[in-house]
Amino acid sequence: VIGLALVVFAIAGLAVDGTRAFLFRRSLQNSADAAALAAAAELDRAAYYSSGGQTAVLEEDAARAAASKWLELRGLPLTAQVAVTPTRVEIVLRGRVPTTFLGLAGIAEIPVAARAYAAPIAGNP
Q1: pLDDT digit string (tens) for 46-78?
Q2: DSSP characters for 49-85?
Q3: Alpha carbon of residue 117 to chain centroid
């Protein structure tokens, strides 16, 4: 009976805590995608208009600020890395989900991460 109870708790732990980790990862991915898209919209307007829309280069400081502001407004407990080059934005988010059932097995939290990329597209849409 004790062995069966341990197996049931392990399965419940994977189901409950695994679902919480999956949902948190999905929230991180949504946040990373949205922040990357917001950052990729921050174009160097002078370069864009002088080329007639054929050159799309990011304004790096504005892109970094847009991504950071969006992530800050989201309010999730996370660590963010924002890398911006003239042609691309990369967002890496990391967080931890505290466990309930798996804590009984010595696993206090589950690390979760998400990554997103975005780049401006030049030319006619």
Answers
A1: 888 888 888 899 999 999 999 999 999 988 899
A2: HHTTTS---B-HHHHHHHHHHHHHHHT-S-EEEEEEE
A3: 10
Cα–Cα distance between 75 and 111 in angstroms, integer? 18
Contact 18, 68 (CB under 8 A): no
Run of H or E residues at 113? strand 109-118
Closest CA to 26 of 119, 116, 122, 100: 116
Token duo for residue 38: 């917001």
The residue to which tokens 């919209």 are assigned: 41
CB burial of residue 40 (10 Å; 0-12, 13-18, 19+): buried
Mean model confidence pLDDT for the chain = 91
Residue appearing with tokens 């466990």: 99
**How much is the pTM?**
0.85
